[in-house]
From TrEMBL:
Taxonomic source organism: Rhodovastum atsumiense
Record protein name field: 2-hydroxyacyl-CoA dehydratase
PANTHER family in the cross-refs: 2-HYDROXYGLUTARYL-COA DEHYDRATASE, D-COMPONENT-RELATED, DEHYDRATASE SUBUNIT MJ0007-RELATED
Taxonomy, superkingdom: Bacteria
InterPro entries: FldB/FldC_alpha/beta
Length: 399
């Protein structure tokens, strides 16, 4: 049987208290020592403002990376499902799944890709599930109105689960709280624009992890204190090779690519264009007026994933992000059989190339069998980037 992760990851000492806080919150979620209902959701387009307004314990369900859990999910699926969707299914298996997933009283999923839609339908054999619709044409007025209606349905469903009403004022108060949390995440990320960033890519992913597991009222004072400390920190030494990771989800439990880059090769991930990195924190919601429309507009206005239309918006955002953070190169990574990024990869790769940004394409899974190959490819890529940097310095000196 899978057990909750307890081993501390290779984080900076400043992040270890936050890691401990997250682990304690997860343990409380599993132990069910209170009568509060537990709600889980998969997608970054799900507004947790409503779950928090209802007083529920809630978490984004993006734990993955364990081959045993993948194997559980494979019992119910076909090989064309990505390992993340298999992990989500396997996590809910009531005999051999993940205790954190099995503690969920109700699952919510805004329909993103076909695999995750089918995964949600399979999971319903174990846990009550509500599947909501997410429009793809995000710039159309009809999409905004439709998504508002779906969010109203979401509010009603959540209120029924919690056994209490959720007023518009309740929602506005949560919008203010979550706006503060998202703004803090953005500010943490902007520290990475420094030549020698005061936090690593692993550290930033832990901050994002906290956003999805901790309620904002518990998160904010801890993050504000840490930001004050890191914003004053000065780093010395040689600036590292700067990388952006772009593509599909980097799950909680699948950090091996980032760990390879930072711990074994010595480069630094300075920004991410994926749904568990910086991308979901690019928007600020309106805090007045109709809160349902504010949620609909705000979440559709976040930096788009490749599932949204037009695809050019996603591609151009990714290129601008790499330039904004002065990335020396991009690692474009996607899970095998990913219905979004495996199909749209050529548009992203060609755009980076047009911008003159070197890019390394990686297709992977959770098998752990490709560690050596990944390390070799990443080492070669970083060496090329080091050579390019040296050539640029030499050319500048010769002018």
């Amino acid at each position: 049987m899978a057990t909750p992760r307890t081993a501390e990851p290779s984080l900076s000492p400043d992040l270890l208290p936050i890691h401990a806080l997250i682990e304690a919150e997860q343990s409380a979620f599993i132990d069910k020592q209170d009568d509060t209902k537990r709600a889980g959701y998969f997608c970054a387009y799900t507004p947790p403002e409503l779950l928090n307004a209802a007083g529920l314990r809630h978490a984004r369900l993006f734990k993955a990376g364990d081959p045993d859990i993948v194997a559980q999910g494979e019992r119910y699926t076909q090989s064309v499902f990505c390992d993340f969707s298999k992990s989500c299914i396997g996590g809910f298996d009531q005999k051999n799944g993940d205790p954190f997933y099995r503690a969920v009283d109700k699952l919510y999923n805004f329909h993103t890709c076909a695999s995750m839609k089918r995964a949600s339908e399979l999971i319903e054999r174990w846990v009550p599930t509500t599947l909501l619709n997410l429009p793809r044409l995000r710039d159309q007025a009809e999409s905004r109105g439709f998504f508002r209606d779906e969010i109203v349905h979401f509010r009603n469903d959540v209120a029924e689960l919690a056994g209490r009403s959720i007023t518009e004022d309740d929602i506005r108060a949560q919008i203010v709280l979550f706006n503060k949390a998202r703004q803090l995440i953005r500010k943490f990320s902007e520290l990475r624009k420094q030549p020698i960033p005061p936090l690593s890519g692993k550290d930033f992913l832990e901050l994002v992890r906290g956003y999805y597991y901790l309620p904002p009222e518990k998160l904010l004072p801890v993050y504000e204190k840490l930001y004050r400390k890191l914003s004053r920190a000065k780093r010395k030494g040689a600036p590292p090779v700067r990388l952006m990771i772009s593509g599909s989800i980097v799950a909680d439990g699948d950090r091996r690519l980032v760990e390879l880059i930072e711990d074994e090769i010595g480069a630094r991930v300075v920004v991410e264009d994926h749904c568990t990195g910086l991308r979901p924190f690019t928007h600020t919601l309106r805090e007045d007026g109709d809160p349902f429309q504010a949620l609909a507009d705000g979440y559709l206005d976040q930096a788009p994933c490749a599932r949204m239309k037009p695809l050019d918006d996603s591609v151009e955002f990714s290129g601008k992000l790499a330039q904004e953070y002065a990335a020396d190169g991009v690692v474009f990574v996607y899970l095998k059989f990913c219905a979004c990024y495996g199909v749209t990869k050529l548009e992203f790769l060609s755009h980076f190339q047009k911008l003159g940004i070197p890019v390394l394409e990686i297709s992977s899974d959770y098998s752990q069998s490709d560690h050596g190959q990944l390390k070799t490819r990443l080492e070669a890529f970083v060496e090329i980037l080091n050579d390019r940097r040296a050539e640029a310095v030499a050319a500048s000196a010769a002018e």
